[in-house]
What does this fold into?
Amino acid sequence: MRDSELESNRTVTGSDRQTVGVNQNRATSREPLESALEKLSVDDAAKRAEGIAAFRAVANADPDRVGQYLSAIEPRLADDSATVRNSATHVFAAVAKTDPEHVGDFLSTLVPRAADGDATVRRNATYAFGEVAKTEPDCVGQYLSALRSGLADPEPRVRTNVALAFRRVAERDPESVGPHVDALAACLDDGNATVRRNAVLACCGVAGRSPYLIKPHVDRIEARLDDPVERVRQAAGTTLGTMTGTGTKVFHPETTLTGPGTE
It folds into this structure.
């Protein structure tokens, strides 16, 4: 997995560069992981950063190889250095893509990072939750209250990741999402089309089991029938069809695909 998949548009601070150097993300996967493991627990933040960067580099190319080291990497999720936390959460996110069940065992430690002061750490952590939710929705469902604030995060990719996690849980465990419908409804006007679509589909999952929870928000869902993005309009139509039991997808053909957020 490439860094860009998890950390698009990352901004590296000057302090990060001074701490570990501009090349910390270029650690070679050829460095023995056992040697890198020894660096994870030293007092020197720069050394810890070097060690976790080695795991990160391997995780990008072969995440399965890193999976056996997650217990050793786990303490670095709460490291004092944002750079170390960044790489540690990146490793968990990379492994979650291929082995979500394994990462599910570490969600209690990962969840505080979803509210980390560093936006990149939050993006990585919430990405991991979204991946785990694909196969372990019950596991993620117990952390939705903690993740909920991410639906209003100033970083669009965090909002996207969290909304996706809610959507995936709603598809198989809608009862867990029901208490959070108001927060999801607030995302229906989000400036990011992917956030809007995931929020609508999360509501759709709840509607299939408990339509009365969605009823107060029907007007906002109907408004998405005029969304500038076709996939959002489709999601809104599907959700309304689920509520009426018709499965009908209602569209406004005169709405053109133009404007901000168009995919």
Summary: Residues 45-61 form the longest helix (17 residues). Residues 7-30, 246-263 have pLDDT under 50 and may be disordered. The two ends are 24 Å apart (CA to CA).
